[in-house]
Amino acid sequence: MSKNKSQLRLSSIAVAAEYCDVHTVTIRRWIASGRLNAYRVGPRLLKVDLDELDEMLRPIGGGVK
């Protein structure tokens, strides 16, 4: 199910990289590979949805709850 545009938490690539503690090149690589969607705002500016970045997170290890 796709979100409405009013529900997107759009952020610049630089802010998204800081949010995930990765380099901006990594965010661009994820976009190029199709792992992360980008939204074009104007002729050159790209934005990403922070909720999509949250969905990419997955726990590892055997932490006890």
UniProtKB/TrEMBL annotation:
The keyword Ribonucleoprotein does not apply. It comes from the Bacteria. GO terms for molecular function: DNA binding. Keywords: DNA-binding. Residues 13-58 form the Helix-turn-helix domain. The keyword DNA-binding applies. It holds the Pfam family HTH_17. This is DNA-binding protein. It comes from Mycolicibacterium hodleri.
